[in-house]
Design a protein that fits this description.
Blueprint (H helix, E strand, L loop, with lengths): L13 H12 L7 H7 L21 E2 L7 E2 L11 E4 L6 H8 L10 E3 L5 E3 L6 E2 L5 H6 E6 L11 H18 L8 E3 L17 H15 L1
Helix pairs in contact: 5-6
């Protein structure tokens, strides 16, 4: 499951710094009104408008995580996205949802995939989920939890592999992420982690093959 990482300190995004530089270069001259109306949300403290309940993967169910378990952002404009991180919940679907809605938990992933293939989105992809235990990896990745246990091969059903592969294929297509093991990784591969998921029963060869097939089908 997602790892606690204390990722709470906000820092200016790349776009905010660029805007600040542009203002300085202009010698403090007032920006045109239409430019201000377009860029206001990029300034420190401003929030880009959101649509309540919107999902990034068609067919996903929206259940909001606690705002304490992620950081609002506007990826990929402020942080490039180049990784998908595969997790296992080490418990049932309901317990994972409950944990991600708990502000004291300190962690959550963008998605949870159930054994029956149902996909639930809890954090928008444009936001930084606290799911890896590493700030840099959080900022650059989308996290997908899978219902089950790392030591139970039966956790990973055909329906789960198929749904998760379609989800990952869409994510890779959206951000131009290569479909390979360098860019689609397990939580265990994040530097400094003490997690072992997705574990020895996760079939990486099968999963990458399914992701590639899903990408080809949409090409």
């Amino acid at each position: 499951m997602g790892a606690r990482n204390g990722d709470t300190e906000r820092r200016p995004g790349r776009r905010a710094l660029l805007i600040g530089g542009a203002v300085a270069a202009a010698g403090g001259a007032a920006l045109a009104r239409d430019e201000l109306s377009r860029l206001w949300w990029r300034l420190p403290g401003a929030q880009k408008p959101r649509v309540a309940g919107a999902v990034d993967f068609r067919g996903a169910r929206w259940v909001a995580a606690s705002p304490a378990n992620y950081r609002r952002a506007d990826r990929p404009d402020d942080y490039a996205v180049d990784r998908v991180v595969v997790h296992v919940t080490q418990g049932g679907y309901a317990s994972a949802v409950k944990a991600f809605q708990d502000p004291g938990h300190g962690a959550a992933a963008h998605y949870i995939v159930r054994k029956d293939g149902q996909v639930t989105q809890m954090i928008r992809e444009l936001d930084v989920a606290f799911h890896t235990g590493d700030r840099g990896y959080n900022e650059r990745s989308v996290g997908i939890e899978h219902e089950g246990f790392v030591d139970e091969a039966s956790s990973f059903t055909d329906a789960m592999y198929s749904a998760s592969a379609r989800l990952t294929a869409r994510i890779c297509g959206r951000y131009g992420i290569p479909v390979d093991r360098e860019h689609i990784i397990g939580h265990v591969e994040v530097p400094g982690t003490d997690h072992t998921d997705p574990g020895p029963h996760w079939d990486w060869d099968r999963y990458i093959r399914l992701v590639r097939q899903a990408r080809t089908a949409r090409a």
